[in-house]
Input
Amino acid sequence: MRFSADRPLNVQPATVRDYRELARRRLPRQLFDYVDGGAYEEATMRSNESDLERVLLRQLVMNDVSVREQATEVLGQRLSMPVILGPVGLAGMFARRAEVQAARAAEAVGVPFTESTVSICGIEEVAGATSTPPWFQLYVMRDRAYAEGLMARAQAVGSPVLVLTIDLAVVGARHRDTRNAMLGDPSTWAKIRRGVDLVSHPRWIKDVAVGGKPLTFGNLADVVPGARTPEDFKEWVDAQFDPSVTWDDIAWVREHWKGKLIVKGVLDPEDARRAVDAGVDGLVVSNHGGRQLDSVPSTAAALPAIAEAVGDRTEVLADGGIRTGLDVVKMLSLGARAVIVGRAWAWAVAAEGEAGVRKMLDGLRADADVALALTGSNSVNDLDRSNLA
Output
């Protein structure tokens, strides 16, 4: 039974939730829980999905929907569909050089890939593997000179968009990581349990632990020595994340970033207006996938008021709980220009690598196409609240 995690599913994965189940079997428990879990009691993480499920589409028939279009433009970039692969920290621990695999899949489908500051593969490696430069995600750090260096590296490879994550002044309590002894100084017994967990997944050991080296934070290799567990990430977070940051710091970012700038982590219309006043090109309605402050609104609940407040002044994107192409259509109908998915591609790459990410995106596209047809819509660019029941 110990090695049952590597047994294949009886069916081919067809949905994002299928990929989640296959990832659960293939990843060591500590890594699966790291990407799968949320903060505190995970209420907000669950509501991201459940609130989106409760949004109802308005079915309209007998319209000419023989032509349906999903291509759109976001921040000056043409996308084949209104989906962006979002930043996922430590993704290279889920599959061999996972960020490169996901970036290639995104390029093949015609959507952007966003490189995380704490990716395993560095920005240069990802950019070198594709002809379409990735977007780059950045945290506001205490060491501003180091952050400026990261921005310079991203600009050097042609990154067109900087995604400034602003909801990590402090880190929410992620109890799954605590239970798995991923945080803090683990006891001897906890180390044994973690070791048993790892050796019970020989496929992962071959693909990632051995074949995926070097397992270092590619963008932070000179300041963070390793990436064997999220403990390394936690130590770096505690030392570098800056709780003193304010909207005035957007001017500092603008001084060093010449491309498009969006902020990720907005949940309130007042913050959305402040972001626009600070001069950003766009914002992401996000609660960090329910991984920060629990008991805050889901993104589906927060999105309409934010879109109404600033949607005519800036580009509004959204993430959180998106599992199907129907969810994509719902988010666009609620006011988003496009959506960002994180866990969906992390599960897919853990399950089937680059091919899994590509099939996951193709599945979202197919779902969205059906939703367009049966809501009487010809284009994702025409979706609004009238498409909801």
Notes: The first strand starts at residue 72 and ends at 74.
